[in-house]
């Protein structure tokens, strides 16, 4: 990879990390206040899934996809199924932390794997 391409990728990851933090904060705030605006949270997770995939962060994209799926179900039923709100909030934090680590060139935080396992298994 050329120096220019490396610099562009670093900038792209930094921009995604900022976006991820903002979007994850929206999801976490919605869950903390027990909002029933599941569509807004689902849309945030959907955007995260797409952007993470575009910047090559496959596991973060998968995590956002699992969050999106739960939130889409909640939109249909009017409620997040039992206990999943805490798992989705944990996943949002893990995703934002994972994006920040990627932007710094650090390893993926272990919470990303834990959140993937939690949301995938239930």
Task: Chart the SSEs and their pairings.
Blueprint: H1 3-32, H2 38-54, H3 58-77, H4 84-104, H5 110-121
Helix pairs in contact: 1-2, 1-4, 2-3, 3-4, 3-5, 4-5
In words, what does this structure look like?
- With 122 residues, this protein is an all-alpha fold.
- It has a single domain (3-121), classed as Up-down Bundle (Four Helix Bundle (Hemerythrin (Met), subunit A)).
- It is built from five helices and no strands.
- The chain has helices spanning 3-32, 38-54, 58-77, 84-104, 110-121.
- The longest helix is centred in the first third of the chain and has 30 residues, at 3-32.
- The model has no long low-confidence stretch (mean pLDDT 95).
pLDDT < 50 runs, ≥5 residues: none
CATH class: Mainly Alpha
Largest sheet: none
Count of DSSP E strands?
Answer: 0
Fold-level CATH name: Four Helix Bundle (Hemerythrin (Met), subunit A)
- Secondary-structure-based class equals mainly alpha
Strand content: under 5%
Going by CATH, the homologous superfamily would be HPT domain
Give the H and E element order. Answer: HHHHH
Helical run tally: 5
Distance between the termini: 40 Å
């Amino acid at each position: 990879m050329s120096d220019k391409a490396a610099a562009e990728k670093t900038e792209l990851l930094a921009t995604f990390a900022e976006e991820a933090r903002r979007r994850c904060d929206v999801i976490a705030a919605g869950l903390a206040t027990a909002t029933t605006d599941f569509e807004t949270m689902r849309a945030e997770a959907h955007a995260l899934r797409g952007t993470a995939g575009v910047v090559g962060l496959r596991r973060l994209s998968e995590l956002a996809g699992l969050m999106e799926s739960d939130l889409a179900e909640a939109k249909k039923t009017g409620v997040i199924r039992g206990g999943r709100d805490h798992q989705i909030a944990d996943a949002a934090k893990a995703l934002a932390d994972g994006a920040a680590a990627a932007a710094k060139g650090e390893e993926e935080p272990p919470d990303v794997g834990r959140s993937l396992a939690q949301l995938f298994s239930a």
